[in-house]
Amino acid sequence: MSTLRRRRAELEEAGATITSAGWQVPMTALIAVGLIHGEGFRPAPQARPLTPSAQPSEGSESTRHLLECVRELETEVQ
Fold it and tell me: Distance between CA atoms of 2 and 66, rounded to whole angstroms?
């Protein structure tokens, strides 16, 4: 909060609205004054299911259990 208060004038120049009712600071203003780097929201990459050739070996009991959990979660997601 103290950083935003110190940068108030810059934020207002970049499009923030600051009134007695509160602050409205768009992401574009935060990016413009250098408080957030990048171009904003990016969706997470989609996970690809393992192909049969990429399946890990099911050697140990704990590995088998984890693979079973992963398969159940993949089914739930789909």
Answer: 45
